[in-house]
From TrEMBL:
Keywords: ATP-binding, Magnesium, Metal-binding, Molybdenum, Molybdenum cofactor biosynthesis, Multifunctional enzyme, Nucleotide-binding, Transferase
Reported function: Catalyzes two steps in the biosynthesis of the molybdenum cofactor. In the first step, molybdopterin is adenylated. Subsequently, molybdate is inserted into adenylated molybdopterin and AMP is released.
Upper classification of the organism: Eukaryota, Metazoa, Spiralia, Lophotrochozoa, Platyhelminthes
Pathway info: Cofactor biosynthesis; molybdopterin biosynthesis
CC annotations in GO: cytosol
Listed Basic residues bias regions: 199-212
Source organism, top-level taxon: Eukaryota
Magnesium in keyword set: yes
The UniProt record lists the keyword Metal-binding: yes
Name this protein carries in UniProt: MoaB/Mog domain-containing protein
Organism: Macrostomum lignano
Chain spans, region Disordered: 178-223
Pfam families given in the database record: MoCF_biosynth (PF00994), MoeA_N (PF03453)
GO biological process: Mo-molybdopterin cofactor biosynthetic process
């Protein structure tokens, strides 16, 4: 019996036939195909994941059903039956070709060759195969017998094809290796069975040869192993890093050059926060502001041509109200700031420029006022659209939404906002020595994992969704399992530890050997953070996944996350200038230099005067050991210090250098 794959496959079956569409009981091949799928010995499926429909031989209806099964139902495989012949109504291949992104002619050829074993008329079948997104689409002939023959060819390869489309690289590689080993074993068995006398005469050689074969328990262990990394051969590890040592500027540029913004999504800012998000397109005002002529002051709406003098008060309009009165000569209507200016009025006189002449006996109404100064036409009136005109561009694509931008959106009633999606960032710590930070007391040679807590908090404070990937043991299989899971939901994966020169530092090997990731760099000339690594992984129909392998020392992880991870996440989120801000500062003390360029934690003291030439003063936070997270406490910046040289051993107090700010963008 065939070995059944653990993968669950969602399958759509489409019978394409005018006859079956009119009389569904005439459909024999469709139900038979559903039966074959449900009883497969090569993959799992269940009745809820098998969809069957009948459509007529109409190109548009076939296209629409293929798109529905692929785009809405997210089927892994769509199998059609019927409509592949030469008659004028046989349009299945044409309709299918229109929806495919890529063709898979090898499948169609294999089906044709199988059918030719039964009938020469098989050459008249025009079925096509290919991919739409992550869906495989295959045309089968319309007869039940042909469906049997063709499905026998498809069945063994469907699960493997689906895994490739889903980007399950590790499983695909493992199956390739298994197939190669199986082929080798069959060849080996055939070789020995074909030479029985040679085995008899050379029994010593035969036993010696098999003395190096694996035992059944070893074979079982190999079958359960996920990773292709041979972590047992520690003596083969390099004594010096094989990766070139690059500068920080080169590393940052490499990261940002590898990243493009995620696609846009529309967010309802009435129900979800868009603060800090980046607009993906311009925002155009669909209504003017103000939408009516509005009073700038509390006072009286008048006719400017009536000049100064007495006015009879005929109505009152407060903000939010309207007046039905059309203002006549030598009359006034009392108005409030922001309220509408009544018809007939062309000026507003502030209350300070008037005098009350007459009121009602109970003082509840003003009857007559005197305008003390002649008003000018348009005085203290905001015309319609004077703040924002109808059709005006109020926010540019690429703008970051802050409180003021959100207020502008509110003022024009724009609730649906096009913004770049935010990357989901998975954070994991690697190491057999680690334990969860909060809870039980320390035991043995364990230490608490602080890196994950720090990085999750840092990323969250910048507004990025995070996933806690936990602690991953220093085993290649464990890394493979964790990365496979993380890839499904995360656009960025950050690990700490496992990237240096230790015998259990396996992250880079797993990424390249098991995931075929592109490793862009693995050594940076900086302190702290020399072994920082960056890789990208291509995934079908998705943005590439970014991997950051940060050093395990807490300060190294903190510094490199600020240098590389935060800018990369910002670029994914649509920032046009994603790097951290850098300013000039003056050293408050002498600071010794390191052989490598250093990112030295510091606090900043800002000048209180108004002298534009006065720079903030930087003070070291003390010991800069990469294990000492206390050096980051209350740090407001990272001093960017040059490497030590024979002529430059330290920087004196008062020296001006650059500082990357941690407290602001």
């Amino acid at each position: 019996m065939a070995s059944i794959s653990s993968i669950q496959i969602k399958i759509g079956v489409i019978t394409i036939s005018d006859t079956a569409y009119k009389s569904p009981h005439a459909d024999k091949s469709g139900p038979h195909l559903v039966h074959l799928v449900s009883k497969s010995q090569y993959f799992h499926t269940n009745p809820d994941n098998i969809f069957q429909v009948i459509v007529p031989d109409e190109t548009q209806m076939i296209e629409e059903q293929l798109k529905t099964f692929s785009d809405a139902f997210h089927c892994d495989v769509i199998l059609t039956t019927g409509g592949t012949g030469f008659t004028p109504r046989d349009v299945t291949p044409e309709a299918t070709s229109r929806v495919l992104d890529r063709r898979a002619d090898g499948l169609s050829t294999a089906l044709l060759l199988k059918s030719l074993e039964s009938t020469p008329y098989a050459v008249l079948s025009r079925g096509v195969s290919g991919m739409r997104g992550q869906t495989l689409i295959v045309n089968l002939p319309g007869s039940q017998k042909a469906v049997d023959e063709c499905f026998a060819v498809l069945e063994p390869v469907l699960a493997h094809a689906v895994k490739q489309l889903q980007g399950r690289i590790v499983e695909v590689k493992a199956e390739h290796v298994e197939m190669q080993q199986s082929a080798h074993s069959r060849h080996h068995l055939h070789h020995h069975q074909s030479e029985p006398q040679q085995q008899h005469h050379h029994g010593h050689h035969h036993r010696h040869h098999h003395g190096h074969s694996t035992s059944p328990s070893q074979q079982l262990q190999q079958a359960l192993t996920k990773s292709l990394v041979n972590e047992a051969q520690i003596a083969n590890r390099p004594r010096q890093s094989p990766y070139p040592l690059i500068s920080v500027d080169e590393a940052v540029s490499t990261v940002l050059d590898s990243v493009t913004p995620l696609p846009a999504e529309t967010v309802n800012c009435a129900t979800a926060s868009v603060l800090g998000r980046i607009l993906a397109s311009d925002v155009i005002a669909k209504e003017p502001l103000p939408p009516f002529r509005a009073s700038v002051k509390d006072g009286y709406a008048v006719r400017a041509r009536d000049g100064a003098g007495r006015r009879r008060v005929v109505d009152v309009v407060t903000a939010g109200d309207e007046s039905s009165v059309v203002l006549q000569a030598h009359c006034a209507i009392r108005v409030s700031t922001g309220g509408p200016v009544p018809s007939g009025a062309d000026a507003v006189v502030q209350v300070e420029d008037t005098k009350l002449i007459e009121s009602s006996p109970d003082l509840t109404k003003e009857l007559v006022i005197e305008v003390l100064k002649p008003p000018a036409e348009g005085q203290d009136i905001r015309p319609v659209g004077s703040d924002i005109a109808l059709g005006a561009k109020v926010l540019d694509a690429g703008a970051k939404i802050g409180p003021c931008e959100l207020g502008i959106l509110a003022s024009i009633g724009c609730s649906l906002v096009p913004v770049h999606k935010l990357p989901t960032v998975g954070v994991a710590s690697t190491g057999n020595e680690l334990m969860e930070p909060f809870g039980a007391g320390l035991g043995g040679a364990k230490i608490r994992d602080s890196n994950r807590t720090t990085l999750l908090a840092m990323l969250s404070s910048h507004g990025f969704p995070v996933v806690d990937l936990g602690i991953i043991p220093d085993k290649a299989d464990c890394l493979v399992t964790a990365f496979e899971k993380a890839i499904k939901t995360c656009q960025v994966i950050v690990t700490t530890g496992g990237v240096s020169m230790g015998e259990r530092d396996l992250v880079k090997q797993v990424l390249t050997a098991d995931f075929n990731a592109t490793l862009h760099f693995a050594q940076v000339r900086m302190k702290p953070g020399k072994p920082t690594s960056f890789a990208t992984l291509s995934v079908a129909n998705r943005h590439p996944v970014l991997f950051f392998g940060l050093p395990g020392n807490p300060v190294s992880a903190f510094v490199t996350a600020n240098l590389y991870v935060i800018p990369a996440c910002r670029r994914l989120g649509g920032w046009s200038a994603p790097r951290r801000s850098v300013i000039n500062v003056k050293l408050g003390q002498e600071i010794g230099l390191d052989p490598r360029p250093e990112y030295h934690r510091c606090t900043l003291q800002w000048p209180s005067g108004i002298d534009a030439d006065v720079l903030p003063t930087a003070w070291s936070t003390g010991s800069q050991a990469s294990s000492r997270l206390l050096s980051c406490q209350s740090a407001s910046g990272l001093l960017i210090l040059p490497a030590r040289s024979d002529s430059l051993l330290s920087l004196p107090a008062g020296h001006v250098t650059q500082c990357m700010l941690l407290d602001c963008p």
